[in-house]
Write a structure and sequence with these properties.
Elements lengths: L1 E2 L4 H10 L4 E2 L14 H19 L5 E10 L2 E3 L5 H11 L3 E13 L6 E14 L4 H9 L20 E5 L2 H5 L3 H10 L9
Parallel strand pairs: 1-2, 1-3
Antiparallel strand pairs: 3-4, 3-5, 5-6, 6-7
Length: 195
């Protein structure tokens, strides 16, 4: 399998499952399309990423993903800098937001260039504790929020901001395992624990 992402968090999930893979990040432009819902946006980008890399590696299984944070219908991307991270974190504190994670798995067909794309979206509700700048500012200074949608990483120090989640933890990290396992089953290659 090829992971169409440079995310160390997605790679860690695949490694934890014992799935062997190579990394080839996609280089698509991640623009927002007018009128697109957060779910449509994440799904479109995950499919585009997977197909872009699949075109470079014919006959290979390729996994693409996209994760975003949304609150009040607004998509929160990655922060521009530490100040923007603090602003994002304070907008989420004491509230529930949604983490939208989409996956797309390109399954090579029987006859090249035939292929199948299995894709879906998973939404997890995350509630942050109430906190102020005394918590947000030191966390932003760690640098952890810089490459993460919504300016936090639940698998790291950002866990201290979270009061509860409703849904799948791995989806919040960026690779929803339930979707991946369903895709593998649909493709006739059900997941098995490594020997």
């Amino acid at each position: 399998m090829i992971l169409a992402s440079a995310s160390p968090r997605r790679a860690a999930i695949l490694e934890g499952l014992g799935i062997s893979f190579d990394v080839h990040p996609s280089r698509i432009h991640e623009s927002i399309v007018e009128g697109e819902s957060p779910e449509e946006h994440a799904l479109r980008l995950s499919i585009q990423k997977a197909l872009a890399v699949a075109n470079l590696h014919p006959g290979k299984w390729v996994l693409g993903g996209d994760t975003l944070v949304t609150i009040d219908g607004e998509i929160l991307g990655k922060p521009r800098n530490s100040e923007h991270a603090v602003e994002m974190l304070l907008s989420l504190q004491g509230r529930t937001h949604q983490v939208v994670s989409a996956l797309a798995l390109v399954v090579p067909g029987v006859r090249p260039p035939d292929l199948e794309v299995l894709s879906d979206v998973q939404v997890t509700a995350v509630t942050f504790r109430s906190f102020g700048e005394e918590m947000a500012l030191p966390y932003a200074k760690t640098g952890e929020p810089q490459d993460k949608a919504g300016a936090y990483g639940i698998q790291g120090g950002g866990a201290a901001l979270v009061e509860r989640i409703e849904g799948d933890y791995t989806g919040v990290v960026g690779l929803p395992v339930p979707l991946l396992l369903r895709f593998l089953e649909q493709a006739g290659k059900p997941y098995r624990f490594p020997d």
